[in-house]
Amino acid sequence: MVGIAAWGAYAPRLRLSRKAVTDANAWVAPNLRAKAKGERSMANWDEDALTMAVEASRDALGADDDRSAIDALYFASTTAPFVDRQNAGIVAAALTLEKAIASADVTGSQRCGLAALGQALAAVQGGAAKRALVATGEHRRARAASSQELDNGDGAATFVVTADAGAAEFLGRGSITDDFVDHFRGADGEFDYGWEERWIRDEGIVKLVPPAIRKALENSGLSASDITHFCFPSTFAGMSASLAKTVGIAPEAVRDNLALTLGEAGCAHGPLMLAHALEQAKPGEVILVAQFGQGAEALVFRVGDGVEDARPTRGVTGSLADRKVEENYLKFLTFNGLVEWDKGMRAEKDNKTALTTLYRNQDMILGLVGGRCRETGVVQFPRTRISVAPNNPAIDTQEPYRFAERRASVLSYSADYLTFSMSPPNHYGMIVFEGGGRIMMDITDVEPGEVDSGLPVRMVFRIKDVDEKRGFVRYFWKAAPDRGVLAKNNALAAE
Amino acid sequence: MAKGIRDKVAILGMGCSKFGERWDAGPDDLMVEAYIEAMADAGIEPSQLDAAWFSTHVDELGTGKGGTPLSIALRLPNIAVTRVENFCASGSEAFRGAVYAVAAGAADIAIAVGVEKLKDTGYGGLPVGNPGTLAPQIIPNGSAPGNFAQLASAYRAKHGVSREDLKRAIAHVSVKSHANGAKNKKAHLQKAVTVEQVLNAPMIAEPLGLFDCCGVSDGAAAAIVTTPEIARALGKKNLTMVKALQLSVSNGYESQYNGWDGSHFHTARIAAGKAYREAGIERPREQISMMEVHDCFSITELVTMEDLFISPEGQGWRDVLDGFYDADGGLPCQIDGGLKCFGHPIGASGLRMLYEMYLQLQGRAGERQLKDPVFGMTHNLGGAPASNVCSVAIIGQEGA
Prior knowledge:
The structure holds 2 protein chains of 2 kinds. Chain A is α+β, with helices and mostly antiparallel strands. Chain A has 14 helices and 22 strands. The two termini of chain A are 45 Å apart. In chain A, 51% of the residues are buried.
């Protein structure tokens, strides 16, 4: 059956306290105090829609780094780092997918995440693809003291779509396209420009979403009462319950839209809610996920017997649990480029990227691929013509060797207050990998005092530098504490 | 095996500029300052120089590439000038070139000059360099203190030393060098400090505070070398002889192969072993009279005491706290203040270390003079612990 074989999700670890935001802005926007509830996910300075989508995709694909079965990739986002450089290509390189795959960036509307999923399902149904990866990610910027700043969240979700999917069977889709401009962001626009909320709700969502849902149900051969999980992202209170009532979906089917825990992650939010539903649903239950955006998109799935086996390591459940509350609103503004701050002269260095060098070393830089000597088995990074093995510097014996999914730990480190960092002090150190190899690299998602020799770490795909002069984003891998291993170690120590 | 350099070359004269924040001087002025002193000490004319080696590391700051900056500043008589660069060990590299030229018989008298003008950046610390096109896409956004600070975490992990004990030991390293630097009028930093000051200083790169880091200084140093025969013919007595000159360079073992533990310098151990053999030294802890090591950071000096086989592995921190390396200790180290207080104009530092050993061997170190030194050792590092070049040189009394 065509459907979802696996899924993964990612929300950044930082959660911005909404109260911290409304307290800071109360002098200018006292009305926002009503929104001072819960927290929103907040990308670290080195995360964006693309890096989060890579993390969600790794969660979906699992620890096995043989990804040669994937033959199509869709990357959906309205906040992708590049307008003209295929973002999906960067995702593919980070995941070390094959070169001979179809790929596309899907964008332009808040429903583009579900649209990409719909396209992938159609491609597999039609036989154009056998195993498609649909990665969605969003990192929306909003003006300081706006309600969007409080409503938005950052996150990503990924699905693997196949013809023999065990997690969820695809039943039907409904799409409505209508140029209802609730908000827009022009090609060079920094922020969204939105119209009156009451109009968006009453003339937009209320009128355009139900036809999409009805069409999806009709195509599925189901009635609204068959739906056991209804996923619909909206920042309007009670919107999904009211839509459920309109179309006849049972009130208990309406799912938590994660507004209080993550905020709304744009085009990735419908996918995130779908992932969350899959993590909690039982075989046989029916999920309807819909999202609004110059029309609407609705997809219906029946949960399969293989859903348990397909459950990802992290998922939405794990992402919700792995959180660190950030009370410092200024840090959020700084990370999002909303404060002109004194970075010091050390930040004046030119970050121009040599594109020739980048391409020549693509698998190393974007895929964290090193080498393994086929004679000695010695593993090293980077791959070189002459092996580093001290007793056997064999020549031209190295085969590509992927480091990204290998467990690792810190050999030595420092927390550097001198060098420029978007989040000082900059942590970095020598990381040694199980199975061999070592890389001196940046360490991210840590606080001073958290790192020491022996700390278990995992690799994460992150922004390395931003070339603000030319608008280029440079990516590489960093080490982050492997909190799963840490938790296990702590549990063992407690016994 | 090669016979080595022992006793083939003598130091004819040396010079060293005042180190520090030389707002008054450009690289040319600094080179001239060191050159005039060295030439007066050697007692020769420019026409007697056959060849020159010139070391400078940071060419982005205006000293320039090639041999011309030296030749023009000193108005050399159109002789060969070779610019060398080997990170912070560039000065030792210039000395090596000049010594080898004399030993080979290609030059009768050769000069090595090292210079660095660092204080034209507008900010503290070393200049942010240009690492090329590949490195910035993968290496951490770091600094020299951050790279060297990593020795501390690995040393603690390997030897089971507590954060507090290690921090106290490295504080003593700096306190000792400040006490020595206070007796050196050419030093950048000439004030004594207390352990409390060091421990409470602002953090630069964990666990290194401000006083764990050496001075970032402007300066130049020069050495003129010749054969012992020519030196004697020029009327020199009590010659200071080159006993060993070794350089070991990382090949990726530390940074790419899972063998190195991060707590020491692989190259330093190799260079030191070779240097002792070349100089005929069997018991360095007893035989070496004094040394100037590459104390770019206090932790570097501490682990170096073990890498040079002076302190037993894992025990260097105890020797430091026991005062073994103090001016009145068993093996005085950084008697001129070291990089810590004399300062660290990169391209000049290796020559500056030799300058102090030379003055001591000649009995001309004034207030800092040690009693009857026989062998002086210099240890000059470049790069970072995981990838570096390490020079070890030994000079000593004629006949020793």
